[in-house]
Amino acid sequence: LEDLQDTFDFCYKVHYLPGEDRASDPQYAQQVQALQAKLQILDRQRREVLGQMQQLLGRSETLRDFVLQELGAWQERQQHACLGAPADTRLRPLETWFTELGQGLFQLLKLLQALEDLRQKVTYERDPLKAEIPLLERRLRELLTYLLQRAFVVEQQPSMPNASKRPLVLRTASKFSTRARLLVRLHDRNHRMEAKIHIDRDPPKIKGFRKFNILTSSSKTLLAGDSPQEGLVCDFQYLTLKEQKDSRSGKGSKGVSEGPLVVTEELHLITFTLAYAYCGLELELETSTLPFIIISNNNQLSSAWASILWINMLSRNPRDQQFFSTPPPAPWPQLAEVLSWQFESVAERGLSRDHLLMLAEKLFG
């Protein structure tokens, strides 16, 4: 396309002299005719390139839908793994697919920019590049933005080091860790990508809902490991939580935990934000952990863990912090499966039909 354009441009500048009346010159008429033929070929080629671009964008959208379907399945597996299910939660295949799709889309963006450079050099009436490039670029940027926003995931849910396979229950003043990963492994090494964490960024409007501060640093530079295989990870370790004291709760009052929810049903979220930049695209990406419960002593652990089981079993929206305002009942087959996972996570075998029948009789008579 570039060669065709250069040839046309050269011939146009050499042979076509606007403003001169050379209609009677047969050689000039031939040259103008040849120029028009070259312009038609150039126009046809431009339309073909745009058609291919639209086709590739359509295929990319289909690919994106498949990849997001796989991401949804992974998130479900991760949720089940938190409850002790034997689930594969490796991210390597997803990371490969997200990265390759991202690479393809950024490559298309570069090609569009190259087409725009060609249009700046040569344009004409009804030039298809003039109308189509802005539309294609907008569609492509929207596709990239959506892909990148979904590619930022929580790889490791908040958990304390000795949680005995029970993540999502944290204790004040005890250390815990959590990790997020960007599945599109593309970044500009000249741009420092900073990840930040916030607790309860948009807290639910529940009376007496406790507020916490994250002690230790709440921001980190997203690091690519020495090898690209290690991916783009922000790993927050040795974090601790401290409750904000309410100055209004005077002596003799129940304090800030007074409210409709007991401590072991109060759900908290950590949100990760990331300033991302690559190939001229700048975005703020955001992702959240699953809801977790904050306890102050080990006596509350069993009740808190029961709440974690309940929300992850039954909530259609796993980030609903008001779930326990009206918690739904659990059907026995679903609860039985989760109890079996619990046993399997610590005893390396699940519960048999007879075991579950015995438990059902204990629970329901």
UniProtKB/TrEMBL annotation:
**Official protein name in the record:** STAT2 protein
Q: Which gene encodes it?
A: Stat2
- Domain called STAT transcription factor all-alpha: residue spans: 1-144
The UniProt entry, under Gene3D superfamilies, shows: EF-hand, STAT transcription factor, all-alpha domain, STAT transcription factor, DNA-binding domain
The UniProt entry lists the main location of this chain as cytoplasm
Q: Where in the cell is it found?
A: Cytoplasm; Nucleus
Q: May I ask which residue range the UniProt record assigns to the signal sequence? A: none
GO CC annotations, alphabetized: cytoplasm; nucleus
- Its source organism is Eurystomus gularis
